[in-house]
Amino acid sequence: MSAEANPQLALRPMLPGEAPLLAEIFRASIMELTQDEYEVEQQEAWIADANNEEAFAKTLADHTTIVATMGGSPVGFGSLETDSKVGFLYVHPAAVERGVGTLLADALEKIAAGRGAKSLSVDASDSAFDFFNKRGYAAQQRNSVRRGDEWLSNTTMKKTLPGPETVQ
């Protein structure tokens, strides 16, 4: 436990060479936070996306990727795949319930709205469904996504964003 009661949360763009660290956050988040909704084989198929570090780094670089830090150390990341679609939003298990996911989601919504998006969609895992639902995202459709030999379920959710004149 840190001597600092509430380490400062901050956001910044992803830095070059940071993909391996973000891949570790991705893996830890999936393996520790989704076990109630997904089988181990499904989790392992899901994290395989990060096993090719070069491809994972390229995906993150192709997205608008932001990193949440706590006391200066990365504890989560989020990205926009397009101006109107969330690509990633993952928080390290040690930083859950500390406002990291909310900080990332708020920032992604503001970036999307600032770029003129009228709405923002996300393919939310069953583990993340309630988080997005509480933020005003409405379920649009259920999906089955193949990862290797496994099928994973998620839900496409969508939220209407405020117009650019109301973004602060």
From TrEMBL:
Q: Name one GO molecular function term.
A: acyltransferase activity, transferring groups other than amino-acyl groups
Q: Name one Pfam family in it.
A: Acetyltransf_10
Domain N-acetyltransferase: start-end pairs: 9-162
SUPFAM superfamilies this protein is in?
Acyl-CoA N-acyltransferases (Nat) (SSF55729)
Q: Which UniProt keywords apply?
A: Transferase
Q: Which InterPro entries match?
A: Acyl_CoA_acyltransferase, GNAT_dom, N-acetyltrans/Recomb-assoc
Region (Disordered) residue spans = 142-168
Q: Which PANTHER family match?
A: ACETYLTRANSFERASE, ACETYLTRANSFERASE (GNAT) FAMILY PROTEIN
What's this protein's name?
GCN5-related N-acetyltransferase
UniProt source species: Methyloceanibacter caenitepidi
